[in-house]
Predict the 3D structure of the following.
Amino acid sequence: MDQHSFNDLRQRLGDEHIGKRLRAQVDHIVNVTGRGLGAFHYENLPPFLQLLDLFLKVSGLKKIGQRNALQFAVRENHVLFPGLPEPFRGLRILQLTDLHLDGYPGLGSLIARAVAGLDFDLCVLTGDFRFSDTGIYRHLTEEINALVPSLQCRLGVFGILGNHDFIEMVPLIEAAGVRLLINESVALNVHGENLWVTGLDDAHFYGLHDFDKALQDVPDETARILLVHSPEVIPEAAERGFGLYLAGHTHAGQICLPGGIPILLNANCKRQYTSGRWGFNGMSGYTSAGVGSSGIFARFFCPPEIVIHVLQSAAL
Ligand SMILES: [Fe+2]
């Protein structure tokens, strides 16, 4: 990140937030346990992944898992949204999460091909852009630049950071055409009515989600959607009147037993919130299985998914 971008980010997020995130990023690289919601982070455990990778190779399952990881399921989810302003009825939101774009060469183009022809008004990317790229993020940059042009739509492309994403990736993601929301909100205005989109920094590992900061410019009693990487702050979101909570992070297990039974979910919340659609105190929610793969580029009994949420109004 150049000095100019860093200064911009300092002004936007504040030194305290940047300082905490940079310190935690060092922990992220070196620690397997001890920080964040759910204290075990298997994705930071190279010996575990190496062993699993070896097992898949030896058993001949790796190619099958890789093939599975590239067979994207396209799902439509109809959302009941209390108090939805009339111009947003029928709004179609494309959600892609856990892209881990540098995890497979050409993944950005493959996802772009999979979304081509889909009908959507708004696109949200709910974190974990990165797989393992560091330094100047050459691979990530190539993949994101191959993907984002295919996501352009009338209300824009918004994103949040996940637990795999580093703060220094912000300029490259935004240069590709994604507006990141880091404890920030934006109003979508259609025919004089607003629908607010709020995005939080990662709650799972960094614990730097800040509802108050994110909502400081959002008027009370307005229709609002929350983007947060993990489904771990659901009660707090419901208290703040969000009509829809969109998350990812769990990969729905990614490597599952037959029947889609997850072995690991890596989220500190009840299992009912870790995959697919759910509700909480009148708030609709969806935790996507993700379009990419992390740790090992393979999936079993848990296809990668591309989701389109269609908003419908509901009685208050
Ligand atoms: Fe992820």
User: Anything to note?
Assistant: The chain has one domain: 3-314. The CA atoms of residues 29 and 79 lie 37 Å apart.
